[in-house]
């Protein structure tokens, strides 16, 4: 039995007529696009197509203005269930428009690489429960102050020094393989001397001792 609202279940808020809600007024929008027409037909859900229509270039431009991602300062795009390539492409299209966002949550989106994305004003970024394996795969975040990377798959601290020239104060790396590296905290603070908090624990005196580095010296005798 179909509910009256069933035909709207694959529509984004921009596709629903007679409202003026803009993107920067939403904190937790669903930006994941619905299935293609072919997939809907395969699912025997073609009844949802009656709400869809061919859009003109003018309507596309009006939708872009309505999304208004450029003026969004705080946004939660977590749990988007990005199961298809076109979903990921639409998601990244929106991320590229977040030029003024300051707080952004992207939790549990199966993300692997956002290195092509730049978030010039982002001060707080939460990308917990994704599939990042390296700091190099994170977006460009020159103003970052609080970064949470818990429950990813970051195996080494290689690339972490790229954040040395940012105002990063707090970093969370809990439940990443790199957490089990010998002298883990000393290595992080050695590479990020301005960091104040790691994994929720403030910088301790023992964290300030430099990590052991083994050098091989060549010795020569001068006669």
Named at the architecture level, the CATH assignment is Alpha-Beta Horseshoe
Q: What is the rounded Rg?
A: 23 Å
Put simply, the count of helices is 4
Oligomer: single chain
Q: Roughly how much helix do the residues carry, as a percent range?
A: 10-25%
Q: What's the story with the biggest beta sheet?
A: 7 strands, mixed
Terminal CA distance reads 97 Å
CATH class: Alpha Beta
CATH topology: Leucine-rich repeat, LRR (right-handed beta-alpha superhelix)
Kindly name the structural category. alpha/beta
In the sheet with the most strands, the strands line up as 1-2-3-4-5-6-7
Overall geometric form: elongated
Q: Please, what is the CATH homologous superfamily?
A: Ribonuclease Inhibitor
Mean pLDDT: 85
Classify the beta-strand content into a percent band.
Answer: 5-15%
Q: How many independent structural domains?
A: 1
Can you write the helix and strand succession as a string? HHEHEEEEHEE
DSSP E strands, number: 7
Low-confidence stretches: 214-221
Protein name: TILB protein
Keywords: Leucine-rich repeat, Repeat
InterPro entries: Leu-rich_rpt, LRR_dom_sf
Organism: Hypocryptadius cinnamomeus
């Amino acid at each position: 039995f179909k509910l009256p609202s069933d035909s709207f279940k694959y529509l984004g808020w921009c596709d629903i007529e007679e409202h003026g809600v803009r993107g920067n007024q939403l904190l937790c929008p669903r930006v994941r696009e619905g299935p293609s027409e072919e997939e809907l037909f395969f699912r025997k859900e073609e009844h949802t197509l009656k709400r869809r229509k061919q859009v003109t270039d003018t309507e596309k431009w009006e939708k872009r203005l309505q999304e208004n991602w450029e003026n969004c300062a705080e946004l939660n795009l977590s749990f988007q269930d990005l199961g298809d390539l076109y979903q990921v492409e639409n998601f990244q299209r929106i991320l590229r428009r977040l030029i003024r966002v300051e707080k952004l949550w992207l939790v549990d989106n199966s993300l692997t690489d956002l290195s092509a994305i730049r978030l010039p004003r982002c001060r707080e970024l939460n990308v917990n429960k994704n599939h990042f394996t390296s700091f190099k795969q994170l977006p460009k975040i020159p103003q970052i102050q609080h970064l949470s990377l818990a429950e990813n798959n970051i195996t080494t601290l290689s690339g972490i020094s790229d954040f040395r020239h940012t105002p990063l104060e707090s970093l969370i790396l809990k439940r990443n393989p790199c957490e089990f590296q010998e002298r883990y905290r000393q290595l992080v603070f050695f590479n990020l001397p301005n960091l104040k908090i790691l994994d929720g624990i403030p910088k301790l005196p023992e964290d300030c001792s430099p990590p052991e580095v083994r050098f091989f010296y060549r010795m020569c005798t001068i006669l």
